[in-house]
Amino acid sequence: MSDHLVAGIEPPYYTVVFTSLRTEGDRGYGETADLMKKLVEEIPGYLGYESARTPGGLGITVGYFRDEDAIAAWRSRLEHQSAQRRGRAEWYESYSVHVAKVERSYSFQRGGTGEPADS
Length: 119
What we know:
- One of its GO terms (molecular function) is monooxygenase activity.
- This is Antibiotic biosynthesis monooxygenase.
- There is one protein chain.
- With 119 residues, the chain is an alpha+beta fold.
- The protein has a single domain (13-102), classed as Alpha-Beta Plaits (2-Layer Sandwich).
- The protein has helices spanning 29-40, 68-76, 78-91, and strands at residues 13-22, 46-53, 58-65, 92-102.
- Strands 2-3-1-4 form a four-stranded antiparallel sheet.
- A hairpin with a 4-residue loop joins strand 2 and strand 3.
- The radius of gyration is 16 Å and the shape is globular.
């Protein structure tokens, strides 16, 4: 899981929202997730991610990419494809993927200067 928020990305950019319900047990999930984090950072146009998981196994990971080419490059990585197959076989009860173009974005940080713009 990420312990930071991704902010300050100038739109337009794309998000890939991966929502999943895990099976019980790790069976190499953590190790593979760490490898995927490392590999995605090699993709030109990858901008960062945010992730959270409930104790019951529901998880949401949002990946940020500059453009659709960056998403396609990540989707075509053989290691990512292998992890996807293993996920369907072992790690997930179900999942969904949503890809969206972000045209507006703003953030807030306590102690920051000013309020977010309503644009």
